[in-house]
UniProtKB/TrEMBL annotation:
It comes from the Bacteria. Coiled coil: none annotated. Residues 123-144 are annotated as: Disordered. It comes from Microbacterium keratanolyticum. Pfam families: PadR (PF03551). This is Transcription regulator PadR N-terminal domain-containing protein.
Amino acid sequence: MTPAVFSHGDLRLYLLSLLAEAPQHGYGIIQALTDRTGGTYTPSAGTIYPRLAKLEEEGLVTKTVEGRTSIYAITDAGRAELASRQGDLAGIESELTDSVRLIANEVRQSVKEAMRSLRADLASAAKDDRSTAKKRASSSPIDEERALSRELLARADASINAFRAQVRADLRTHVARGGAVQTSTITDLEASLDSAAHAITAALSK
């Protein structure tokens, strides 16, 4: 079972701390929470907006409507409560780090299990390929080639999805643990993917 990111009442105080940094609209708050948890926690609008409405009722935040967007800002009363609960906020930050680490580990484990399942599926598919090879002997060369292409395409899709899941999990786990993603790392990743794409395109055009 995935651990809760915020204990009861903690999200309320954390929202105040976010708004103390700068006024935000609802989506900006959701995105900030997603970023600060390395993508392991994205609260729903149904989670955030009722709490913002409650903070507004208590006079701790204000809401300004600009077109179709509502901007929330902390009030002096909100800053006073935040200042009086700095110890609680420090505890929330510590618990948040622990919760994100647990979630990241669960994500990594899920990816590992998916990879094991994928390898088993590929092994099974390879076995099926061998068992059906004899059946193809009576088929026309064109039919045989098309059937093989479809099977290889399925393997390519599975490999691409597994690669994406693994890299995504590694990046998010790294960020969740407080690490920084270097520009050079992403540049190298983009260059490698671009090179692989060109190699495949060149091979297909022969």
